[in-house]
Write a structure and sequence with these properties.
Elements (H helix, E strand, L loop, with lengths): L9 H11 L3 H15 L6 H11 L3 H11 L6 H13 L3 H14 L5 H12 L3 H15 L5 H9 L1 H14 L3 H14 L4 H14 L8 H21 L1
Length: 234
């Protein structure tokens, strides 16, 4: 590189070696020197510089390069790293979108759906998070990934919610009630399961919950009766 800095392919090979060795400060320095001194900026340089900055924790500096890289052909990896940047900036919805784009373009890459799952969980969307986490698990194959297993453990209540929703989609009210009962047994304090039980009750009794005291009392009595009945059925 020092002898023939402008020789075609030399810069690319040098960057590849440094990248394989995960020498990210050296990748950054080399790319910037090549651009500023020799006017070299081969295809993929925005992605490489953006990634090197992300790996060094320099998220704000990486953003502009990765946004540019996302406009280029074959931007799958750029979406993943931009998702990381957006997450660090608190732009969670945009980060999910970027990780899902990366996941679609990189069907064998497990960390894009994993990060999407974490973000969805953080935003209080457990069923969507569970689907992404299961996709990450599927892509991991037989390998044991502690991070994925830990996330799936956190999302166990969402498994019950997913079962309820699938039963309702199929018109299986009894199946939905069974899934809800099982979920409440396993996770009796889970707020979203309790909320879903209340929603199902209001759907079956639309006159309840109208703000009147007697309506609220009837709703509470009906909910207690429903839980008692489910317990007796078990």
């Amino acid at each position: 590189m020092q002898r023939h800095p402008t020789q075609p392919g030399v810069l690319e090979r040098m960057v590849m070696v440094l990248r394989q060795q995960e020498q990210w400060p050296a990748v950054q320095a080399l790319l910037l020197e090549a651009r500023n001194r020799y006017g070299l900026w081969p295809d993929g340089s925005d992605l490489l510089l953006g990634q090197s900055l992300v790996e060094q924790g320099q998220m704000e500096g990486a953003r502009a390069y990765l946004e540019t890289a996302c406009l280029e052909e074959g931007a799958s990896w750029a979406h993943h790293f931009l998702g990381k940047v957006l997450r660090s900036c608190g732009e969670l919805e945009a980060a999910i979108e970027q990780q899902q784009l990366a996941s679609e373009a990189l069907p064998g890459f497990l960390w894009a759906p994993y990060e999407a799952a974490e973000l969805l969980w953080q935003l209080g969307r457990p069923v969507e998070a569970l689907l992404e986490a299961k996709e990450a698990e599927r892509r991991s194959g037989p390998a044991d990934h502690a991070l994925i297993e830990a996330l799936l453990e956190q999302l166990q209540p969402a498994q019950a919610l997913l079962a309820v929703e699938r039963c309702l989609e199929q018109g299986d009210q009894a199946g939905a009630e069974r899934a809800l009962r099982q979920g409440l047994r396993a996770h009796p304090q889970e707020a979203q399961l309790l909320a879903r039980a209340g929603e199902l009750l209001r759907e079956s009794e639309p006159d309840l919950g109208d703000g009147r005291l007697d309506g609220i009392e009837r709703e509470l009595d009906a909910l207690e009766s429903l839980l008692d009945a489910l317990e007796q059925q078990g």
